[in-house]
Design goal:
The protein is mainly alpha-helical. It has a single domain, classed as Up-down Bundle (Four Helix Bundle (Hemerythrin (Met), subunit A)), CATH 1.20.120. It is built from five helices and no strands. α2 runs antiparallel to α3. The relative contact order is 0.21.
């Protein structure tokens, strides 16, 4: 493999990260249905579970694989990785709350759905900030230094 070909493959990793983030944004938009009746309860739960699972899998893949490889080649990004993993922990707490609210929403009043909607809106703002920071902070390393050592399936695999 020539160096230009290797660089093209690395650039594709940065692009794949941005595409994964866009897929998660779309799943969040799907989950942001405004329940108001029994017919929408099951749809809300289904979308929330799918979204929460996808985002959790993505972050776990980053924490366990991508970030380890990133630190191996770019130890100077230790503070960036620490902030990203702290974000992941905070987001995991919000996801747990959303999943609990979604489970409790079946057959509950429309006010429960409104509470879920507020949680999802807050999460959307946090995710947007997190995704933007992550893409800016690590894209150079993804484009030029990080090798795919098996971590990509965990980070991008939720899309399949």
């Amino acid at each position: 493999m020539g160096s230009a070909q290797g660089a093209d493959r690395a650039v594709a990793l940065s692009r794949q990260l941005a595409e994964a983030h866009e897929a998660l944004r779309q799943r969040l938009r799907d989950a942001q249905a405004h329940p108001g009746s029994a017919q929408t309860d099951s749809r809300l739960v289904t979308h929330c579970v799918a979204f929460c699972s996808a985002l959790s899998a993505h972050h776990q893949g980053e924490d366990a694989g991508l970030f380890a490889e990133l630190l191996r080649v770019r130890p100077d990004l230790r503070d960036v990785v620490r902030k990203l993993t702290e974000d992941h922990q905070m987001i995991a707490g919000i996801l747990a709350t959303i999943a609990e609210l979604a489970d409790e929403s079946v057959g509950a009043s429309p006010r429960r759905g409104q509470l879920i909607g507020r949680e999802l809106a807050g999460l959307a703002a946090i995710m947007e900030s997190h995704f933007g920071y992550e893409e800016r902070a690590i894209s150079d390393a993804l484009d030029n230094q990080v090798q795919e050592t098996g971590w990509a399936t965990a980070v991008f695999g939720f899309r399949t």
